[in-house]
Amino acid sequence: MATVAVETAQRLFHGMITSVFRAPVSFFDTTPSSRILSRSSTDQSTVDTDIPYRLAGLVFALIQLLSIIVLMSQAAWQVILLFFVVLAISVWYQVLSKCHLAEIVQQDPRLLDAPGTIAEYDKPSQLLQDSSSSFSKLVSEFLRRSSQSNS
């Protein structure tokens, strides 16, 4: 796990350095070097500390899941059949949800401004001013319901 974390951190560092070196001079005119150093060191330390813990948690959860399945299948062999049925249903559900997302994006391609980022939710203050946005409707509905529950 440590080698995976080190390799990931090195790739991130190399990518950041390459991006900074290839940036136009105007980038350095508008961005102080202290901000660049602060951001890169913060990101690097997050990657250095976070990845091993998350990877260890994933491995622990997988070992736990496999142990539970093995122990339950020894007690009742029907659990194996149930496991495969649930696995098939979850794979089918994943495919179905991706198909529906593709249909939604196909209807209005402007919903996505980058892979996986819904454009509307990058600008909350502008969206609150626009009463036709989904975000504004969601906030007003939340405020209405919370005021009803407090009354």
TrEMBL record:
Pfam family, one: ABC_membrane
Annotated TM spans: 51-72, 79-96
PROSITE patterns tied to this protein: ABC_TM1F
Gene3D superfamilies hit by this protein: ABC transporter type 1, transmembrane domain
One GO cellular component term: membrane
InterPro entries from the UniProt entry: ABC1_TM_dom (IPR011527), ABC1_TM_sf (IPR036640), ABC_transporter_C-like (IPR050173)
UniProt domain ABC transmembrane type-1: residue ranges: 1-96
GO molecular-function terms, A-Z: ABC-type transporter activity; ATP binding
Keywords, alphabetical: ATP-binding, Membrane, Nucleotide-binding, Transmembrane, Transmembrane helix, Transport
Coiled coil: none
Superkingdom of origin organism: Eukaryota
Name of the protein in its database record: ABC transmembrane type-1 domain-containing protein
Organism this protein belongs to: Trifolium subterraneum (Subterranean clover)
